[in-house]
Write a structure and sequence with these properties.
227 residues; alpha/beta; TIM Barrel; eight-stranded parallel β-barrel; 18% strand; globular; binds the ligand O=C(O)c1ccccc1N[C@@H]1O[C@H](COP(=O)(O)O)[C@@H](O)[C@H]1O; isomerase; amino-acid biosynthesis; tryptophan biosynthesis; EC 5.3.1.24; aromatic amino acid biosynthesis
Length: 227
């Protein structure tokens, strides 16, 4: 697995062509959002599994999920062949503990959904869960829709920076990142990794090659500068 530092992830992969495009332009990890509460996944599970199984290290597939039950998460990760899972639901700490016990080798990312004034709540979540989490991922709450992922919205980067300073585990920064803001985001927040979904899409809803290429290049430039 890629060293989980200076890592660039692209989320919301919808088919093999898009996966090839992202890997070709230098992304490290690919995120697949599956079993979404809406019931409208962008890619069939068997297609995601086939892409994930074809990825060669250091590239890896990541399950993006709202599942909250450790055994269900573990089974689904097995079916897909992922080495990492990103948990966006309200997972109880006990389920995170159980997941680590069941699957110590599985790389677990837990989302921290930044709202207007929930920084203290997120810091407490980090305090409670960090022994069972490998990396945190920020995301942005959209108060208009109640959405907690892939909103395309940025949040207060001061909160992200505070989370990076206070968390004993590394942090992947996400939420409204795009080729134009990722350089400043990394220099301001100093995360270990970055991730983007909607900011890399063209008007057709597919990943835009030029946007992915610039996102990766700008992220690498900023990571090199922060050392
Ligand atoms: O990618 C998705 O479809 C998704 C669905 C449900 C929860 C999270 C999801 N993706 C994560 O959201 C962040 C931020 O997205 P955006 O860049 O603001 O559009 C993205 O990095 C994914 O990890």
């Amino acid at each position: 697995m890629t060293e989980v530092n200076k890592l660039v992830q692209v989320a919301g992969i919808i088919d093999a062509a898009e996966a090839d495009l992202c890997i070709g332009e230098g992304a490290d990890w690919l995120g697949f959002a599956l079993r979404l509460p809406s019931g409208k996944d962008d890619i069939p599970e068997q297609d995601a599994a086939a892409i994930i199984k074809g990825l060669e290290a250091p590239h890896a597939g990541v399950l993006i999920s709202y599942l909250t039950d450790a055994e269900e998460v573990s089974r689904f990760c097995d079916e897909l062949g992922v080495v990492a899972v990103q948990l966006h639901g309200d997972v109880e700490t006990e389920q995170l503990r159980l997941l680590k016990e069941l699957r110590p080798e599985l790389f677990v990312l837990k989302s921290l959904v930044v709202k207007e004034d929930n920084a203290d709540e997120l810091l407490k979540l980090v305090d409670d869960t960090h022994p069972f989490v490998d990396m945190y991922i920020t995301d942005t709450f959209d108060p208009k829709t109640g959405a907690k992922g892939a909103t395309g919205l940025t949040h207060d980067w001061n909160v992200s920076a505070e989370l990076v300073r206070r968390s004993p585990k590394p942090l992947m920064m996400a939420g409204g990142l795009n080729p134009e803001n990722v350089y400043d985001a990394i220099r301001t927040v100093k995360p270990a990794a970055v991730d983007a979904h909607t900011g890399l899409e063209g008007p057709d809803g597919r990943k835009d090659r030029a946007k992915v290429a610039k996102f990766v290049a700008e992220a690498r430039r900023a990571f090199d500068e922060i050392g």
